[in-house]
């Protein structure tokens, strides 16, 4: 395969998030929209037309038909979480590389079966955590890993909330127990947990405790919750996620010498620029009226939005595998660690907010 051959994507289903990914695939220099499948061929055709699929793109009336198309290199799977294990395993068996929406599964045992299928059939797996691919993320990590400016991480708090409208709270798949049983924890909480792990260089916490009084709907699906994560060396991470509060996506990471603050970490305030602030060895002036030195603001620009950068990186890895290399294992490992913490938070809730150990 030449470097110029774009990776041909098939999309399974016409979920709302698939609109964003269709645009991302169009923008990515090494990917192309090739096929879409829905349970209704009319819906698939309408989706392709509305999302600028190229002329000649394949329109299918089933997910199986996309997987059976020999020219599809990779599939994007934005289906409800309860369907991930079935369709991701099938995709791997058909030797399709998989870009899988988060949360990756209902639990880590399911995800392990997906990983096993991907490894058995030599396909690349990556989850859809877009902010990981924004150049701001690498810049923020430069600060966090600088022992002179940031020191050692001691505490991190993350938050992702948005005020869902009544229709969402009644009809969205994320509030249906048979489709996305983890609700806000699986949706918004995934990003919060990933950010905490990222700041800890992906070292898993030893214990997790869910915070009391989560809000659940009539079906028992989580609408708002939080938890604290604890490491053996005393580091603490906390997060809050909710469908019931004003839009907020924040990270506050506190080290022994410095602090990182980020607003809009999941989705930047502006598509082509993202900001964060850092403070290092800061104190007060003589009269304690201001910070000295004040925190510094940093702006990171990008020509391609983060979702297109994600597709670009995924397609690059797929291209390498098509040329005979092994799939990159980093991404499934990060997905599994995030899922492990989600499972532990849920287990703590189910056990009356007890401490849960992560092995």
Question: Would you give an account of this structure?
Answer:
- With 359 residues, this protein is of the alpha/beta class.
- It has 2 domains: 7-131, 3-Layer(aba) Sandwich (Rossmann fold); 132-306 and 339-357, Dihydrodipicolinate Reductase, domain 2 (2-Layer Sandwich).
- Helices cover 34% and strands 27% of the residues.
- The protein has 10 helices and 18 strands.
- Helix 1 packs across helix 9 (306-322) and helix 4 (84-93) runs parallel beside helix 5 (108-121).
- The chain starts with 6 loop residues before the first strand and ends with a strand.
- The mean pLDDT is 96.
- One of its GO terms (molecular function) is nucleotide binding.
- InterPro entries: Gfo/Idh/MocA-like_OxRdtase_N, GFO_IDH_MocA-like_dom, NAD(P)-bd_dom_sf.
- Residues 7-126 form the Gfo/Idh/MocA-like oxidoreductase N-terminal domain.
- Pfam families: GFO_IDH_MocA, GFO_IDH_MocA_C3.
